[in-house]
Amino acid sequence: MCVLGLGLLVGGTGIALAMVDIPQANDLAKQETNVYQYSDGTQMVAAGGGEVNRQVLDIEDIPKSMQNATIAAENETFEKDAGIDPMGIARAVFNMAKGGETQGGSTITQQYVKNYYLDQEQTLTRKARELLVSIKVGAKMSKDDILAGYLNTAYYGRGAYGIQAAAQAYFSKPASELQPDQSAFLAAVLNGPNFYDPAGGMGTEATPDKNRDRVETRQQWILDRMVKTSRLSATDRAKYEGKFPKVDQPHKARNLDGQKGYLVDLANNYVTANNILTKQQLDQGGYTIKTTFRKKDVNALAKAVEDSKKKNIDPKKRPKYDKYVQYSGASVEPRTGAIKAIYGGAGFNNRHYTNNADYTGVQVGSTFKPFVLAAALDKGVLNPDLGADQADSERTPVSLSSVFNGNNKVTLRNFDGTVWKDEKTGKIWKQKNDGGEDKGMVNLRTAMQYSVNTPFIQLGMNVGLQQVKEAAVDAGLSDDQFAGLSPTFSLGTSAPSAIRMAGAYATFAASGVQADPYSVEEVKQGDASIYKHEKKNETAFDPKVADNVTSSLQTVAEKGTGSYAGDNLGRPVAGKTGTTDENRSAWFVGYTPQLSTSIGMYRLDPDAKGQKKFLSMRGVGGQESIHGASYPTEIWTAYMKKALEGKEIKQFPVAPPIGEKVYGHGASPSPTPTPTQPTEQPTDQPSGRPTDEPTDPGGGKPTESCDPFDPTCQTDTGGETGGDTGGDTGGGFPSPSESGDLSTGGNGNGNGGNNGGLFP
């Protein structure tokens, strides 16, 4: 029976071989473009695999080092085998048959057959065809032709199919000029570009650092294998011991000028992060991707930024101050999370490849204060007579009429009234306001209106920093972009992206309904739809909580630091300004019932060597300082006027009463008002206009800050944390001076996260 079975197997294989012919090259061996559409279905851009110039090389034009590196790494017996690896095939078939993970084990001939003649389907039928066709190809084609065919069709990442495109993509040189260490690098990348490209790939395990470690290790291993298989002399190998070739940053396609490159990157990131397509599938092309971006809004946001730059920023006239000014922006639809527009930077055509709308490491300053207020309205302040671990029923939800000490240099206290002391130094903390202003005893609405720091840093302590963080996450921020939970966390030391900020404020615009931002509506291959976005949202806050936050932010926009927006948009506005320590960034985040938008501004030299640092914006545009109430609010207003043109003017819901009027430490009422107490308290609904503008900030000496892409960096800082006409936040949490006052320092990145951005 064994002999009979073996005979049947051999006979069946012979018949199959006789019946199978070498097929024509498959369509996937020819690159295509992807078509990206705006939300209305009109074409935005065609990009993808088709933007790579595939150049097929003869084996004579492929350097021997590349041939040797590939054979040593992937198929040592290539020059002698019959084109197949029976044991490798058996392992793959066995694992697929029992439902296990698919495995490789293929020879170079098999990989060439799969790339050029077959498809990427992982089935027993396709594997059997690969085996049979490989035997025929191995019998009919020379080893040189097979190796050249493989190296010309293999995928190296960065949209590069074939060794010539790969040499250009990674080293900006023709393949004929590749050196052994570069050849070993490209042979290593063939193991999986997403995890071996040192520029990084898609997913949390494909960061630049992790990828670089992997590819360096494999490159050195391949060089060792070349020596072991007598394909490289030990003397030549020694030249590359511990050395890694200089690899270029990814090149971008020329048709992705303006904002299109950032839009395509954002859509691609979403598609791969949500496992709709792999990066290799995207680069091979052939898909139609309908995005959420509205062409009118995209153009309006770009124009608003560029108009402001043209009017106010002149690097030639003021190179010391106006050089390296950058902007970020994002616009999100409440309740759906659809991203309608982003501003990612000056454009790929200006060699600005980092999408500023996604993660940048820029702190958001006082635009974080609404999340502190939301936590206080929702969870309430802790009972000072109980321990720190309290149930919701033991807490006291606050109202906007709650009163806190708004004076300058107020001593920070724990929720139970004891003086807060730094664990390391034992020193106390006295919080500064912008310009050293004393605001007296103010309610939370007034504190938000003028962005007074002392009430909010104390409110965060009374609520609990963990509860503040949870409120921010519930609203839609990503906790991997947060700073550490030190007291200044409440003042905006974290660095959420512009997209996340717009999405989180959209939760307040939607009366507490949260929807994650997304950028892709549908993906089609030919006429077949392979993905459609399903609406997903959830209740993050009780409508009472969200609407009271909106009410306080209406006060900001109507008669506070954001009054330019309220005066000029011509419809109800809620929003918050923010400016960070040493004037390193400025923000305005605001919304109407239909649209939520964030605008950021900062200075950073993208080509700086070593640790990149945020620079002070004092002097930019010829101004003493740049604050959230100035250029960011003007850009926001210009964009929103255009984006909302022709749309119904909608009112925000009237905020119902909520919580109790509580008093912060040192703010309890007394029979005779002190001179610092206001004689009139604002009403619980915004109205009227201010008679005085907030004062300008005091001076300060800029200091160094952290690399925006270094999540481990924590810079101790004091800095003047002030209102939104100056420095709003104090960066990380510094060690107070002997007197307890703030000391000027760096901005303290303190993000504690990664570079994954919106779609890690």
Percentage of residues in DSSP E strands: 5-15%
Whole-angstrom Rg: 30 Å
**Structure classification:** alpha+beta
Largest sheet: 6 strands, antiparallel
Q: Percent helix among the residues?
A: 25-40%
Distance between the termini: 57 Å
The chain-level mean pLDDT equals 81
Q: What's the number of extended β-strand segments?
A: 17
Uncertain ranges: 9-20, 100-104, 671-760
Number of H/I helices = 23
Morphology call: elongated
Walk me through this protein's architecture.
- The chain is an alpha+beta fold.
- The chain has 23 helices and 17 strands.
- The protein has helices at residues 2-19, 64-74, 86-97, 108-116, 124-140, 143-153, 163-171, 180-189, 193-196, 208-228, 234-238, 260-273, 279-284, 295-312, 319-322, 369-378, 444-449, 453-463, 465-475, 498-509, 543-559, 563-568, 631-643; strands spanning 34-37, 43-47, 287-291, 325-332, 339-343, 403-405, 410-411, 430-431, 441-443, 513-514, 520-525, 528-532, 538-539, 574-579, 585-591, 596-604, 614-615.
- The strands form 5 sheets. Strands 4, 5, 14, 15, 16 and 17 form a 6-stranded antiparallel beta sheet that branches.
- Helix 2 (64-74) crosses helix 10 and helix 16 packs across helix 18.
- The radius of gyration is 30 Å and the shape is elongated.
- The two termini are 57 Å apart.
